[in-house]
TrEMBL record:
The lineage of its organism: Bacteria, Pseudomonadati, Bacteroidota, Cytophagia, Cytophagales. Keywords: Ribonucleoprotein, Ribosomal protein, Transferase. Residues 12-169 form the N-acetyltransferase domain. GO terms for cellular component: ribosome. Signal peptide: none annotated. It comes from the Bacteria. This is Acetyltransferase, ribosomal protein N-acetylase. The keyword Membrane does not apply. One of its GO terms (molecular function) is acyltransferase activity, transferring groups other than amino-acyl groups. Pfam families: Acetyltransf_3.
Length: 186
């Protein structure tokens, strides 16, 4: 499998999506532990729509939540990247960073490694000024990654897509700007 990677980090290759990723992403989306902080498991059709949305974002902006392969094996392990968010909130539209990895790759530093590489791409290549991150307040794993990559807590808010889900509706907003990221790299 000769993937053309848009970005690479030490262990990870970031690429655009293709439809042969559908079954692998659907399997990841069907893992209840991976999807613990989401209101439902996406259907196969929703998984296909997600891939199409990422392809469209990439075509429009040159970025998306990239499909991520573990370089050593070229195995698909999930996604990490940045996308435009336009849902109704006082901080949107914005560019948000996100990740979802197969649990066999958890607790090895890959989410942080990949997210740092995507921040570098966002600030240095795409010349973005600031990146946000959003997660349900109770998602301590994602919050830990946000903090590990230098993001700062901004506030809690009620996510409009989760308003009827008492467990998930209160979300946190984190942010990092280009200037702070550049200083951190020194």
């Amino acid at each position: 499998m000769n993937n053309k990677y848009i970005l690479k980090s030490k262990h990870l290759g970031f690429r655009n999506w293709n439809f042969c990723d559908t079954d692998k992403l659907f399997a990841l989306n069907s893992d209840k532990e991976v999807m613990e902080f989401f209101p439902h498991l996406p259907s196969l059709e929703q998984t296909k729509e997600f891939i199409k949305r990422m392809q469209n974002q990439f075509e429009k902006n040159g970025f998306c939540y990239f499909a991520v392969d573990f370089l050593e094996t070229e195995e698909f392990i999930g996604f990490i990247g940045i996308i435009e968010q336009t849902y109704e909130a006082d901080f949107t539209p914005c560019v948000d960073i996100g990740w979802r990895l197969d649990k066999k790759y958890w607790n090895k530093g890959y989410a942080s490694e990949g997210a740092k590489r995507c921040l570098e791409f966002a600030f240095e290549d795409k010349k973005l000024e600031s990146i946000k991150a959003i997660a349900p307040e109770i998602n301590l794993k994602s919050r830990k990654v946000m903090e590990k990559i230098g993001m700062k807590y901004v506030k809690d808010f009620k996510h409009p897509a989760l308003i009827n889900d008492k467990k998930l509706e209160t979300c946190v907003l984190y942010e990092i700007n280009k200037e702070y990221f550049s200083q951190e790299k020194l």
